[in-house]
Amino acid sequence: MNFLHRERAELEALMPGLDQALARHPLAELEQAPSPAVAAFKAAGGPGLLVPAANSGAGASALQAVRVQRAVGARCPSLAVATTMHHFSVAGLAAAAEYGDGLAGALLESVAKQRLLLASAFAEGRPGRNILTPHLTAERRGDRIVLNGSKMPCSLSRSMDLLTASVALTGPDGVPRLAVALIPADTPGITVHPFWGTPILAGAESDEVRLTDVELDPSMVVATEVTADAVPDALNVAGFLWFELLLTAGYLGAASALVERALRRPGAAEDDPTPYLVPVEGAMLAVEAVARAMADEPWDEALLVRALTARYAAQDAIAESTRACLAALGGMSFVSSPDGSYLASAALALTFHPPARTRMARPLREHLDGRPLRIG
Question: MF terms per GO, please (predicted)?
Answer without folding.
Answer: acyl-CoA dehydrogenase activity; flavin adenine dinucleotide binding
